[in-house]
Amino acid sequence: MAEANQKHAGNIVLIRSAALWLLMALLLAWCMVGLNFGVAPLKVIFAGKFTRLLQAHIDFLLMTALILGVYAAKVPLPWHVRWAMVVGAFTNSSLFLLMAIFPSLDNPAVQPPPIFGVYLLTSIIMTSYGFGKASVIVLRSTFKQA
Q1: Are 71 and 14 in contact (CB under 8 A)?
Q2: Residue 145: its pLDDT value, please?
Q3: Is residue 52 part of a domain?
């Protein structure tokens, strides 16, 4: 296990989550195909704007790419940074997915439930902290002498 941890610079949760978020993006792509072909159950599930589903798909792809990029740097990150990245990447992308499923969340005339606001704020904070702190750590690692 120690050898595997060294191989991944302790960041195995990043590669695992990137694989999961990529699978999620693929699932959403197939959902969009199904919607375009008029698959009735998908129309019921995704009652909101198609563009929100597309945004969720693209955001999962973007978060996957960002996580893979940080992982590829092979710079060890503290556990709280790794988990903030992973959770933030999912919650950030899922905000668009929630709006695609629940159209009222995407309507400025309707006050969303307070839990949605908490989820949104938590997502923004975790994503910003995780990716911001990881970026600083990776950048600082480039200035260390060998």
Answers
A1: yes
A2: 66
A3: yes
**pLDDT score of 2:** 52
Residues 58, 21 contacting (CB under 8 angstroms): no
Task: Tell me how far CA of residue 89 lies from CA of 32, 45, 84, 104, in angstroms.
Answer: 21, 23, 8, 23
Structural domain span for residue 135: 2-139
Average pLDDT over residues 11-25: 96
Cα distances (Å, whole numbers) of residue 101 to 31, 96, 123? 12, 9, 18
145 in a structural domain: no
Beta strands in 34-123 (DSSP E): none
Amino acid at 87: V
Residue 28, C-beta contacts closer than 8 angstroms, at least 6 positions apart = 53, 56, 57, 60, 97
